[in-house]
Amino acid sequence: MQIPNDSVAALVAKSLKARGVERVFTLCGGHIMPIFMRLDAEGIQIVDVRDERAAVHMAQAHAEVTGGLGVALVTAGPGMTNAITGIANAHVSRAPVLVISGTSPRAQENRGGLQDIDHTAIVRSITRYARTIREPTLALTELDEAVSRALGEGGEPGPAYIDFPTDTMRQPVPAALQLPEHLAPRPRSRSRPDPDRIAEAVDLLWSAKRVLVISGRGARGAGPELTALLDRLGAVYLDTGESRGLVPDSHPSVIAAMRGAVMGDADVVLTIGRRLDFQLAYGSPAVFGNAQFVRIADIPQELRDNRRGAVEILSAAAPALRALVETAGNRLSSVDRDWASKLRANHEGRAKKLRKTMAEAPNGSDGRLHPNRVISALQAAIGDDAIVITDGGDFLSFARVGLSAPTMLDPGPFGCIGVGVPYGIAASLARPDKTVLVATGDGAFGFNAIELDTAARHKAPVLIVVANNGAWQIEVHDQTVTHGKVIGTRLQFSDHAAMARAFGMHGERVETAEQLGPAIARALANRPALLDIVVTPEAVSSDAKTGLAWVPDLQPLAAWDEAERKWRAAGTTETP
């Protein structure tokens, strides 16, 4: 059956094309075939995957890397339910993703048709918009609204979901209703700061002695403005992962290795597009002491969660940061430069020591490589302009500290391990000019290992490195220490490289330090490639040590949990 040029399916494809969508991540299915075929007719690349969860993960990574909209097309019933983990991850990560699906033809609705289920009821709580569009004349209007909601126009960005009965997709839309306003791309709006709030923030920031700046997702794209503020104010800086690479590691304000110390020492904390979530101890005075907060964000969820600011500025990051610097003018900052310099010197000392110990990390008593040795070799090989995706639990803990790049992605605040392979595929397709490295643990790799087939078929130039320790190692450590018995957390030292070769990829297994460097070089030269690197399970990561697997009651880390208990018991805002 031919799909007419004036059909809903054709207009959906034309609208996406007009908005600059170059590829859609999908898995075929009868309920979506009209849109599927029209996307191809418009010249939009179909990246066909092996599981719908991976399709949405890829759409999210595409959005993260390009700064635009990621699009996934999933079929009805189990196709849509398979996608839920990806949708939930995009929801928590506030990533602009559009998910499109299909439903039973209207005459078959609620009659027990194939894959007939109420999709929108399932996803409504984890999307910014969820609609079933049955009337063909409303298709463009609804698609326009879904895209706007996903991009955060007037609210928080995140996944938007729409679906169409399959017969609706085939229906024509009258020419008079094919309005150009619904087909043309629109510039994204940016909120501007209130001058009075900016003046209040300048007074507080420029009079403080120990200012800590923490950026998050909402600060992306504001790197020059953030750097200018740090230079002018003399504050110290943490990125906590969401905006990694926004300020280069070489900048004198960066003090990542002193994270624990500075969080309890600052007198003013400036957050820029960053929620005070579990990674920042919910902003608790038990960890941050008596620090006052200045908060900048263009959405309420990043402006006042957990701790209200002494000053709150509802604005996009770049104009707010520019306004702070302009309003301060020639005013002298009161930030203690000796304090900031000492933190930077201690950071550099720790970073230098870490690089040395990583490069020289000894094998375990089992003769297997230490994860830090692997990470050191990878960092040396990828250079300073790569895209790095870190994934897993235990190995992520090592990689988060040891790897650095201008663009870094990880499982995010949802802790959605398994994203590494699909993220890496999408990132390498979007930016084939970059070296794209996925550094993942063997447990996390297993979630989407089948997508090696997708990488091979689409010739995605990605390097996937699997740190193979044959276990869910954080849980093994916790069970050993806390419960004295290991149950259901051991894996095999499987040959993942053999799996990669079976799909037509370059694959090598690495077991010694002598093999490591040459194998990385060969893999980089023959992407898509996978290295299965056997590492010792004896290495204990920082996350394993801090009680992350134990899940304390009040805070995510054991030390913070203890501090929170003491602070609550004392009934005071003084630092315990």
Keywords:
globular, alpha/beta, 6-stranded parallel β-sheet, 24 helices, about 575 residues, single chain, about 40% helix
Description:
The structure is a single chain. By secondary structure, this protein is of the alpha/beta class. It contains 24 helices and 17 strands. The strands form three sheets. The protein has a six-stranded parallel β-sheet with strand order 2-1-3-4-6-5, sandwiched between helices. A six-stranded parallel β-sheet has the order 13-12-14-15-17-16, sandwiched between helices. The protein is globular.
- Percent of sequence in beta strands: 5-15%
Low-confidence stretches are none
- What structural class do the secondary elements suggest? alpha/beta
Query: Would you tell me the overall average pLDDT?
Result: 94
Portion in helices: 40-55%
Termini distance? Answer: 72 Å
- Rg: 25 Å
Secondary structure elements and pairings:
Layout: H1 8-18, E1 23-26, H2 33-41, E2 45-48, H3 52-66, E3 70-73, H4 78-82, H5 84-93, E4 97-103, H6 119-123, E5 129-132, H7 139-150, E6 160-165, H8 166-170, H9 195-207, E7 211-215, H10 223-233, E8 236-238, H11 259-263, E9 268-272, H12 285-288, E10 292-297, E11 311-314, H13 317-328, H14 337-359, H15 371-382, E12 387-391, H16 394-402, E13 407-409, H17 420-430, E14 436-441, H18 442-447, H19 452-457, E15 462-468, H20 473-483, H21 496-502, E16 506-510, H22 513-525, E17 529-534, H23 542-545, H24 558-570
Parallel strand pairs: 1-2, 1-3, 3-4, 4-6, 5-6, 7-8, 7-9, 9-10, 10-11, 12-13, 12-14, 14-15, 15-17, 16-17
Helix pairs in contact: 1-2, 1-7, 3-5, 3-17, 9-13, 10-13, 14-15, 15-16, 15-22
